[in-house]
Amino acid sequence: MLRMELQQAESGVSAGAGGVADAVADADAMMMVVSAAPPHSHHAAHPPPSAPLAVYERVARMASANAVVVFSASGCCMCHVVKRLLLGLGVGPTVYELDQMMAAAGPGGGGREIQAALAQLLPPGQPPVPVVFVGGRLLGGVEKVMACHINGTLVPLLKQAGALWL
């Protein structure tokens, strides 16, 4: 089964040292990892019936296959914003257009199940797309990506994941 867990910052940066290293450590501590245990929930210890275990495993494989992965919908304006931001930074993310996956696979296709699984990984009330993974770890949706960009932690995270070299 899969679970989300908060990654602890593994840097030796002391508290109050400031700078980009602290910001990266703080952002890294907030990133979530998809791993092999059930989602934490006070309601149930099992994955929701709408997103069986195989779908979580598929999402984990897709998310860890490349440095930056974006689950998107082709007509979503916020998805467009995230993709343009990443491209503008010089990152070529792997993009999975879930609506196109649904259309290609027909009813019961993979896109709908993947979107349901992703919704379980995000905090309640978040839009189901875009969902961004950096270095195989869940960064979050548009709000988290923009917050990291604004506070200066996005580029260091992308460098750490091997998506940027400069």
Automatic annotation (TrEMBL):
PROSITE patterns: GLUTAREDOXIN_2 (PS51354)
Residue ranges of every copy of the Glutaredoxin domain listed in the record: 68-138
One GO cellular component term: cytoplasm
Subcellular localization(s) per the UniProt record: Cytoplasm
Source domain of life: Eukaryota
Family according to the record: Belongs to the glutaredoxin family. CC-type subfamily.
Protein name in UniProt: Glutaredoxin domain-containing protein
